[in-house]
Queue: 3 jobs
Job 1
Amino acid sequence: MAFLDLIERKRDGGTLSPDEIRGFVGEVVAGVLPREQVSAFLMAVLFRGMDESERRTLTLAMRDSGEVLDWSRDPRRPVVDKHSTGGVGDKVSLPLAPLLASLGFRVPMISGRGLGITGGTLDKLESIPGFSTRLPSERIRELVEQDGVAMVGQTERMVPADRILYALRDVTGTVPSRDLITASILSKKLAEGLEALVLDVKCGAAAFMRTRAEATRLAESLEGLANQCGVGTRAFVTRMDQPLGRSAGNWLEVVESVDCLRGKGPADLRELVCCFAGSLLVQTGRATDLAAAIGVASGELDSGRPLLVWNRMLERQGADMDAYFRRLGSDVLAPVVREVRSPASGFVCQVDARRLGEAVRRLGAGRLQAGDEIDPEVGLDRLVQVGDSVCPGDLLARIHARSEQAAEVAMSDIAAAFRIQEAPVDRDPVRLT
Ligand code: URA
């Protein structure tokens, strides 16, 4: 059947059969469909949506377009992972993966690069001198079985359908489709061969999903489909109106993650890390009550053991540990550091994550176009958060830039991201569900 017929049917609000969807994915991977037709099909899906059965078939066909990892069953060491829809300063995966390994899970964490203004776990990890995120699946398996964790990028052989479709979505305005996001995220997670998964669906100014209603619908779509596919999944909706933690930028976020692994660091980061670890304890039957499980995760984080797992993971994945510790010991790496100071006294009532995310990307921490080089050292740290009290001249943020000119350009944008009022401001909870 001509692919044009499928495009027209979807454009007119029709439904595609499982065989038609599987055929589409097969032909995408084989490279036999013209890009303009695939793009038109994606746009039709964006406007018309897919029903539950179409979405499930698309997800599974994408998962099966490449290699799917499989693991020996070991009830004492379930295979788990976490995924976030992405945000500014979202470094949760960095401390979470070693914490999970320290709690006895096996964690084959396959992550992505930054998208738009949202940072990517791989870009953060690659700011560690020598650390390699490109490992073949045999080595990923070895590390996960031996140490409980590997943090890597998708191998060439995994989920090729998503790589091709994502690249087209990125340049055709078809990223924000709930059906396509669900299939894209879950095809990759299901290819890891997981037993349980926790999802962080971000909601707010700097998230794909701006409103709580949209984020809740995406969370339900992801959770429902992943559970149907046999992976015990829980999705949390969390706030992304201000950056998570007090830093945004690749190396600066590694520093904050290590603080978290030392039992310190910002409370909102620690809260999400412990919540997701606690949830996985409950999801895998190792705990019954979420509050108690969060307590267990929190105690483990404070024990120092997850930090040892992190250090061992860095060594195993090729990090130059002397250079890494030297970097950790220096307060500043970027050539230029500027301070943004408060013009008034009062309470911080807004820290605009979208504006800050855009400024951080322009500083060089993210990409404006696919293939752009990342500068690992630039970004922001010592950010204030909503609810903090400030006096005139107090620090609102530090800018780490590669030149005076870049710092100067960033300065006014970054200063405009903060609003201060006289009356005290309540701290918003980071977790919405
Ligand atoms: N992350 C993904 O992996 N895919 C999407 O479509 C959106 C976010």
Note: The mean pLDDT is 95.
Job 2
Amino acid sequence: MTAAVLIVAAGRGARAGRDGQAPKQFALLAGRTVLARAIAPFDACPAITSITVVIHPDDHELYAASNLGHFTKLTPPVTGGATRQDSVRLGLEALDAAAPDVVLIHDAARPFVTQDIIARVLAALADNDGALAAVPLADTLKRERDAALVDTTIPRGGLWKAQTPQGFRFSAIQAAHQTAANAGTPVFTDDASIAEWAGLSVALVHGAERNFKLTTSEDMAMAEALLGAGPLGWEPRTGTGFDVHAFTAGDHVWLGGIRIPHDQGLDAHSDGDAPLHALTDALLGALGDGDIGQHFPPSDPAWKGARSRIFVEDAARRVAARGGRIANVDVTILCEAPRIGPHRDAIRAEIADMLGLDIGRVAVKATTTERLGFTGRKEGIAALATATLLLPF
Ligand code: MG
């Protein structure tokens, strides 16, 4: 079975109180756009074949700037129409050539959809033309008369709140949209309504209260609070780094950003600061973003004699660009000499400064190798580092 996803991101979102700002699907939520958060669970779901985002004609630049390059199933965006219904119909037309068996249609403004919900919608399509995520109504409903006075109470039994994703057999929903467009029906507010209007069987499956749609600025604040409140929405990543530099003639070494007088120097294209090189690789490793040699090739004369602080700061910027935080870093220096102990706290403070971290999140340790190996023979210095990041997902 092939399953395509249409993410509807063409709305203007004026209701979120963000007039003059980017529409809410492009707003940052704990460091990552709402749109990227809405795409991620589908991209990670093995049953999904492709993902296409429908965007407003004015939003191509915002889309391009949304850091979506790491998603593996994204096809080029489709330009939407005047209403949500038009946008979905245009998205379905764009999928026509691929002719997937089923299509899931999802609001970009629902960033908290889960793989469980996606799986339930897909499963229900085995026996139905359509299926939508929804939650049973928990609140008692009141109809107002006027001036916020209660007219009557509406029985809530059997009432559900419709969410997305809403899934359909592709040919059935495409035909229903086309027929509705030709018939000039009133605008439908979701795709299940069109399916119902066309006489298709539509199943209700359990969504989740937290799969809510970001509509108002209060919703945005609630979403931020949900993501900031705990580990929810953050995944820990750990990276390691290792580096060696040989001793050569000289009168000082750079270790952890600190100049330490010594009877030798370190042989290197840059300043030879092995602990900072290991630390840079640990940060890049946690990001899955190459290594120091890839970003700063030793063959490039620009880095001749460079202070290694710039490599660490570059890696920290890459973490920030992904909306991540550095939880802690831990550096171990292996050498017989010079003695690191007297400089340990200066090195910790220097690294904390480079990374914008509290010094309590930076550990620096040193050991000899009991005169064994190249470090034991005082031929060079080695350094190990680990970094733990929290990245949004
Ligand atoms: Mg190095």
Note: Residues 16 and 216 are 4 Å apart (CA to CA).
Job 3
Amino acid sequence: MLPKAELHLHIEGTLEPELAFALAGRNGVDLPYASPEQLRSAYDFSDLQSFLDLYYQLMDVLRTERDFTELAEEYLARAAAQGVRHAEIFFDPQAHTGRGVEIDDVVRGLAAALDGAQERHGISTRLIMCFLRDQPAESALATFEAARPWFGTAIHGVGLDSAEVGNPPGLFREVYDRARDAGLRLVAHAGEEGGPEYVREALDVLGVERIDHGIRSMEDPELVKELAERAVPLTVCPFSNVRLRCVDTLAEHPLPAMLEAGLLVTVNSDDPSYFGGYVEDNFAGVREALRLTESQLRQLARNSFQASFLDHDETRRAALLAEVEAHRF
Ligand code: ADE
Ligand code: ZN
């Protein structure tokens, strides 16, 4: 299995239907589906919003610290089987605090799984807290302050997700300024459904270090040139783009053009329970549909470690990069 880092993964998007039913039973939550199979058959999306509606609805089964530990533990076991050696994991605190779950329960629960991940699964981890861009900037600021005790220990970065179009990055300038001052790493979703101007604004106004998705950057040649020159990583999610109809088919995905343009692209799973596969499944999918060469696949794996926030452990980054070079397909 090709060793890789996963840099674009929403932990809530790893909630498999079977676990959703188990947690619903334990927590006394009524799900409007008869079985995990029936729930899975509802995973047919027309756009980002149609996915988000179900994604937020199903989160209602996540109530206790233990629920978050089990969610993350299931992901880590699956990720290890898919060759993941380092994972930078998003979570959406506002989607939980908005339902009355304490942010400390969420973070403590996730951290309990992540803390032992290297020993149990051979996976080093970082946790990135995302703000919901379709909620007011004041809510992001309040969430940021509530999470402050965890900065530098459990939480190492901030991101921006949820419905993109009509919710431009610039609305969140203040919370990103505070995050930078607090020493956190900065990323944002941009150029998924929104145009290249969202990517430009995330870079220029928020000062992000990485762009999540960024596929629509390809519509602006000047932007592509700058992203390549500055080696700004783009965390691309091929299965997600097809399932949310940002791209018609996997065979038409812009990934090869992005590689050709010299962009620092990586391949990731986004919300693997909903989009039909984990990260190695995405690698296998693009390999087949886009006829990627072994050299391109190795480049994607190399990029994933280069783009990762492993700056605190360059020894590990070097060891993981050496594993990529030693890999035999
Ligand atoms: N939240 C979870 N997955 C997302 C995606 N692909 N885009 C925006 N917000 C998300
Ligand atoms: Zn995402």
Note: The first strand starts at residue 4 and ends at 10.
